[in-house]
């Protein structure tokens, strides 16, 4: 039989990070020592007290059945308390919070609840690839919002045509931003609320890196007046507690938007393993010195890499948050040719263009290997630059 894929599947670009991972594995199999600064997957282990709670929770038969729905009461309460403490935002745990099988899952499913054929979705580029694939699966039209250095990597709303705004259903935003590392200001989010109200656009803010910061704690979109009328915010335990493998995140904010996503999820999955939700409660409510410790480690790594890159004559955008470094490449290179050059000495980075056309001219380094290896990576780069 001839297997024929759907137009949607065929129109998807290759999933960048899986391609990068493949390349890395191929080289490793050939015995090459690889320093992987490509995919943003924390190398540090999940804090012990979280793992301990999980161990017990796994043994409890009440956790062995379908979890279903928005999440256990303890989880939704823990999120509401954490939000209040961290952002001074009130959330109703009954209607304004929903657990997710990682925030990627929620982001990917969201447009199915709101986007019909011909509807536009605003997607930042360069950006996390899931925004665009979620729109492709939902059958919507993508309008790319370029994040440019001259605008400090914030969206320039004046550059979006009115005809597009009139047909727009959803807008994705992500601050602290992957890959540019930029953080949003209150004024920026106020402008977002204003545009959303004027054009009836649902705001979807991906806040996966809110806890990975080096100076000021970044703000939540929901802190801004009127935000809850127009939007929701995605969070993840993946980066904050080194739990990428566990698959747990959450969405919060406008209850009608969450109800839409919930309907999609009721039909596609059956919730987050209850034992993982119990472990997430331990993460959100337990001691937070592990998060502080992690920030210190990333900061050290950031400083070592930035120092090294500067000494190599490269220009970097100084990261206030996230565990990435967004680095300008020499004028005579493309982001692909530059990344290939680094790969020839066993250093993996993400070519900026892989995350969107405005990423051309940059590469992204993830600070997810230890300081010694970062120093080694800089030494190796010296040989080819
Ligand atoms: C890592 C990441 C996520 C996804 O995290 P999950 O592990 O799915 O919770 C979401 N958005 C951005 C921008 C990310 O970098």
Q: Mind explaining what this structure looks like?
A:
With 385 residues, the protein is of the alpha/beta class. The protein folds into two domains: 7-45 and 289-384, Aspartate Aminotransferase, domain 1 (Alpha-Beta Complex), CATH 3.90.1150; 48-285, 3-Layer(aba) Sandwich (Aspartate Aminotransferase, domain 2). It has helices at 7-11, 16-29, 48-59, 73-87, 103-109, 111-114, 130-138, 162-166, 186-199, 227-230, 237-240, 255-268, 274-285, 289-311, 335-343, 371-384, and strands spanning 35-36, 97-100, 120-125, 141-146, 168-174, 202-206, 231-236, 249-253, 315-317, 324-328, 347-348, 350-351, 362-366. The strands form three sheets. It has a seven-stranded mixed beta sheet with strand order 2-8-7-6-5-3-4, sandwiched between helices. It has a four-stranded antiparallel beta sheet with strand order 9-10-13-12. Helix 5 packs parallel to helix 7 (130-138) and helix 14 (289-311) runs parallel beside helix 16 (371-384). Pyridoxal-5'-phosphate is lined by residues 40, 102-104, 128, 174, 178, 206, 208, 236, 238-239, 244, 249.
């Amino acid at each position: 039989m001839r297997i024929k894929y759907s137009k949607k599947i065929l129109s998807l670009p290759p999933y960048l990070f899986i391609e990068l991972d493949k390349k890395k594995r191929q080289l490793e199999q050939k015995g090459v020592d690889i320093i992987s600064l490509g995919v943003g997957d924390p190398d540090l282990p999940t804090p012990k007290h979280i793992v301990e709670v999980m161990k017990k929770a796994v043994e409890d038969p009440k956790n062995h059945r379908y979890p279903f729905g928005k999440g256990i009461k303890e989880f939704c309460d823990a999120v509401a308390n954490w939000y209040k403490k961290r952002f001074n935002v009130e959330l109703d745990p009954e209607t304004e919070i929903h657990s997710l099988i990682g925030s990627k899952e929620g982001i990917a499913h969201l447009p199915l609840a709101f986007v019909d054929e011909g509807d536009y979705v605003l997607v930042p580029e360069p950006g996390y690839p899931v925004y665009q694939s979620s729109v492709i699966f939902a059958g919507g039209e993508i309008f790319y919002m370029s994040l440019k250095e001259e605008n400090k990597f914030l969206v320039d709303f004046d550059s979006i045509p009115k005809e597009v705004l009139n047909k727009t259903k959803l807008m994705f935003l992500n601050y602290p931003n992957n890959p540019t590392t930029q953080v949003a200001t209150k004024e920026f989010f106020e402008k977002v609320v204003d545009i959303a109200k004027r054009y009836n656009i649902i705001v979807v803010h991906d806040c996966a890196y809110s806890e990975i910061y080096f100076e000021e704690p970044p703000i939540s979109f929901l802190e801004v007046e009127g935000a809850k009328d127009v939007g929701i915010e995605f969070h993840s335990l993946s980066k904050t507690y080194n739990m990428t493998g566990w698959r747990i995140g959450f969405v919060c904010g406008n209850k009608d938007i969450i109800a839409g996503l919930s309907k999609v999820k009721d039909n596609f999955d059956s919730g987050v393993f209850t034992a993982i939700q119990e472990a997430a409660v331990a993460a959100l409510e337990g001691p937070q010195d592990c998060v502080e410790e992690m920030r210190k480690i990333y900061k050290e790594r950031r400083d070592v890499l930035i120092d090294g890159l500067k000494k190599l004559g490269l220009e970097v955008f100084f990261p206030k948050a996230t565990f990435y470094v967004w680095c300008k490449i020499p004028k005579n290179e493309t982001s692909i040719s530059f990344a290939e050059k680094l790969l020839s000495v066993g250093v993996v980075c993400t070519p900026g263009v892989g995350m969107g056309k405005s990423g051309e001219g940059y590469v992204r380094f993830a600070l997810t290997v230890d300081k010694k290896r970062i120093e080694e990576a800089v030494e190796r780069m010296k040989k080819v630059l």
